[in-house]
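lol forgot to send this yesterday, sorry. C-alpha cells for the thing we talked abt
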C-alpha cells in the first residue's frame, strides 16, 4: 500500500527589516554624504542617526519613500561633518523598527 502526503509551502516576505546600504560599513566619509536605507516594506518616515559612545544625534528624517518595485529606499543628505573619529550609523522607522548599526569614519 502506498501513502502520499502533500506539503503546503508558503513564502512570506518579511517587511520588518531595514538596512543602511550606503555608505558601506567602515567607509571613510566625505561630506556632504548621501545615506541610503533599504527595506522590503514601505514606511512613512525613516530617521537617520549617528552615534559616538553613548551620545546619539539625529541626522534627519526621510519621508520620501522611493518604490523600486522589489524594495523601498530612503535617502538623506548628511551635510555637517562631525569631528574626526569613528561613528555608528543607524536608522529607525516610524513604526519603531531599528536597523543594524554600521561603523563609518569621519576624517
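and heres what i got for the seq, position by position
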Amino acid at each position: 500500500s502506498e501513502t502520499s502526503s502533500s506539503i503546503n509551502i508558503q513564502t512570506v516576505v518579511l517587511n520588518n527589516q531595514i538596512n543602511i546600504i550606503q555608505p558601506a560599513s567602515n567607509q571613510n566619509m566625505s561630506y556632504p554624504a548621501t545615506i541610503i536605507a533599504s527595506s522590503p516594506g514601505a514606511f512613512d518616515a525613516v530617521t537617520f542617526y549617528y552615534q559616538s559612545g553613548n551620545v546619539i544625534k539625529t541626522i534627519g528624517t526621510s519621508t520620501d519613500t522611493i518604490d523600486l518595485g522589489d524594495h523601498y529606499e530612503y535617502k538623506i543628505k548628511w551635510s555637517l561633518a562631525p569631528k574626526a573619529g569613528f561613528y555608528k550609523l543607524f536608522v529607525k522607522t516610524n513604526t519603531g523598527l531599528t536597523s543594524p548599526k554600521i561603523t563609518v569614519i569621519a576624517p
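DSSP finds no helices and nine strands in the chain. anyway ping me if u want another try
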